[in-house]
Write a structure and sequence with these properties.
The complex is a heterodimer of chains A (572) and B (79). With 572 residues, chain A is of the alpha/beta class. The longest helix of chain A is centred in the middle third of the chain and has 23 residues. The N and C termini of chain B lie close together (11 Å). The chains are: A alpha/beta (572), B alpha+beta (79).
């Protein structure tokens, strides 16, 4: 390890010491020319920081995201300049959409070569301006500790998000005086800590206390602010039913009597209908994504909307609110609890249950207990749910399998659903699972991935093998880009345009990466194959051949109101 | 649509206007003018004039206020 008593150190070493001071013990990255001094400094601190060499920089960003989503604090990734930096873009965009804290460090050509089209030079600061919470280019070593402290403060506070710090090579080499590390506690003009306004809280409480058919929509803000207990206490006191958005899964106990399910395009039938019947809608830590609202011009028009959200821009952005409370979800809920009356809304909740019976009969039973045809995605998720008791970390990729993972697993713990919700990044799951497993080595981590997504970041199987990570990967293989195919069938008159995949032998691919692997084609073999996978110590790839043209319901057809949700294809 | 102006303080680097303009270009805002004035060695004053509905202008102000490195932003209705 480097001599800690010396005061003159390189900018590269100052970076590593700053990361250690921030409590970072794992970095995901990929070296290259413009970041070599940093990797050299890292070599001296191997006992303090584990660098995970991913197979592509995109993998590094998703791994850092997975780590951050489970840990609840910023993950870190490294990349070199030029193509290394541009390969981070998808992950950074993913992180800003899903409010994932992340600090990305990129190497850059020396200061004197900036703007000369030098080898592997690209303006990554310019490129990432719209997709970072903050970015900055460091050109002298002396700036590094304070800039890194600011980066972590910004990434982790308020509405979390990605920060990119671009460090020129001369700044990495230069010597500087190391005077210790000072964490950042204030950034001029930045106010991440917002106290809920008392008058707004009182207005909200008054509306809630007179509500007859209130509904809480809880989003990922509940997870981020660790507000689950407060939400459960608020719901228990007021008797108000709770729906959690896809990204809010695990933010409310799924077996709680007041839990009514999931809203949105493939959410629960009852919730979608009732969102357009409730008289008061209390939205907490969510942003009225179009996948939740459907046609926003027909969304919740009958309701008084109370919006609790830490990002002031989100309030009144999509829907007009009666009361906007700009605050941390946990603090706002805890402040509201003493102001609201004890109440029950059993008759109102019962109306959800009545509609649930229809969904159960028409959709759910067929999805999880099919008696004929090929293996269904829902039955796989139901079995995984039973075998892991709803306590695993589920990391779906993007598509039909993601929606089945959302619907047919009971997320009993927070930080258990790690999914690309906003950007919808195919290829997210396998690298994200690397970070998630390292963040929670004692928890079972299950990747749910389609055959299309699997092939987007398949190279990260090598990272799983090299780091001996206990990640279970279940491929739902229907030889289709299933969600696009479903839409082509339902809305484009069966014209299957470029959605059929002629796939490789996934078991051979996995074994090529030295991971244990198996393939299941028959329903009778499925349960035992899952048992074998879960019993195995280490990474495992299970390919399950599923029904080729299974369609996912309920569904809010694109452009329709949420209450236009359908349980089965329209007869016409 | 009404003419508005958002005025704010940031660092004394006129080139930052590019960063701030991204917010307006992404939302296809009808920008009609912009300016920069040096305040001191550290700070500069930026103004961006644009046409928008009142509610949209309010939301743009919040978006501007949310940016790191922007201080003391205010919205001024020009008529």
């Amino acid at each position: 390890m480097a001599d800690s008593t010396k005061t003159q150190i390189s900018g590269a070493e100052a970076l590593i010491k700053s990361l250690i001071a921030e409590g970072i013990d794992v970095i995901y990255g990929y070296p290259g020319g413009a970041i070599m001094p940093i990797y050299d400094a890292l070599w001296h601190y191997q006992d303090k920081i584990n660098h995970v060499l991913t197979r592509h920089e995109q993998g590094a960003t998703h791994a850092a995201e997975g780590w951050a989503r489970v840990k609840g604090k910023a993950g870190v990734c490294f990349a070199t300049s030029g193509p290394g930096a541009t390969n981070l873009i998808t992950g950074i965009a993913d992180a800003i959409m899903d409010s994932t804290p992340m600090v990305c460090i990129t190497g850059q050509v020396p200061k004197h070569l900036l703007g000369t089209d030098a080898f592997q030079e690209t303006d990554v600061v310019g490129i990432t301006m719209p997709i970072t919470k903050w970015n900055y280019q460091v050109t002298s070593a002396a700036e590094i500790p304070a800039v890194i402290a600011k980066a972590f403060y910004i990434a982790n506070t308020g509405k979390p998000g990605p920060v990119l710090i671009d460090i020129t090579k001369n700044a990495q080499f230069e010597l500087m005086e190391w005077n210790g590390y000072q964490p950042c506690e204030h950034v001029r003009g930045y106010q991440p800590k917002l106290i809920p306004a008392q008058d707004k809280l009182e207005q909200a409480a008054s509306i809630i206390n007179s509500a007859k058919k209130p509904l809480i929509i809880a989003g990922q803000g509940i997870i981020i602010s660790k507000a689950r207990e407060a939400l459960e206490a608020f719901s228990a006191k007021t008797g108000i039913p709770v729906t959690t958005t896809m990204q809010g899964l695990g933010g409310f106990h799924p077996e709680h009597a007041n839990y009514v399910g999931i809203p949105g395009m493939h959410g629960n039938y009852s919730v979608n209908i009732k969102m357009n019947e409730c008289d008061v809608m209390i939205a907490v830590g969510m942003r009225f994504d179009d996948r939740v609202t459907g046609d926003v011009s027909k969304f919740g028009k009958q309701a008084k909307i109370i919006h609790i959200e830490i990002d002031p821009v989100e309030i009144d952005k999509v829907v007009k609110t009666e009361v906007g409370i700009c605050a941390d979800a946990k603090e706002a809920l805890e402040a509201l609890i003493p102001l609201v009356n004890e109440s029950t809304h059993q008759d109102w909740i019962q109306t959800f249950k009545e509609l649930d019976k229809e969904e159960e009969a028409i959709v759910i039973q067929n999805a999880i207990h099919p008696t004929s045809g090929g293996i269904k995605m829902g039955e796989i998720m139901h079995l995984i749910d039973q075998k892991t008791k709803g306590e695993a970390i589920i990391i779906p990729d993007v598509g039909q399998h993601q929606m089945y993972a959302m619907r047919y697993y009971t997320y009993k713990k927070p930080n258990s659903w790690v999914s690309s919700g906003g950007l919808g990044t195919m290829g997210f799951s396998i690298p994200a699972a690397i970070g998630a497993q390292m963040a929670a080595p004692d928890r079972t981590v299950v990747v749910i991935v389609g055959d299309g997504c699997f092939q987007m970041t398949v190279q990260e199987l090598g990272t799983i093998w090299q780091n001996d990570l206990n990640v279970k990967i279940v491929i739902f293989n229907n030889n289709y880009l299933g969600m696009v195919r479903q839409w082509q069938q339902l809305f484009f008159d069966n014209r299957y345009s470029s959605v059929e995949l002629k796939n490789p032998d996934f078991v051979t691919i996995a074994k090529g990466f030295r991971l244990e692997s198996a393939k299941v084609e028959n329903r009778e073999e499925l349960s035992a194959a899952l048992d074998t996978m879960f019993a195995h110590k280490g990474g495992y790839v299970l390919e399950v051949v599923v029904e080729k043209e299974e369609n996912l319901f309920p569904m809010v057809p694109s452009g329709m109101a949420c209450s236009d949700v359908i349980l089965e294809p329209a007869k016409s | 649509m009404k003419p508005h102006k958002i005025q704010f303080i940031s660092y004394n680097q006129p080139i930052l206007i590019g960063r701030f303009m991204l917010i307006f270009s992404r939302r296809r805002v009808d920008v009609t003018n912009f300016s920069f004035r040096k305040i001191d060695d550290n700070d500069g004053e930026f103004t961006i004039e644009f046409n928008a509905e009142d509610w949209a202008a309010e939301n743009l102000l919040k978006q501007i206020q949310k940016q790191i490195d922007i201080f003391e932003a205010k919205l001024i209705q020009l008529i």
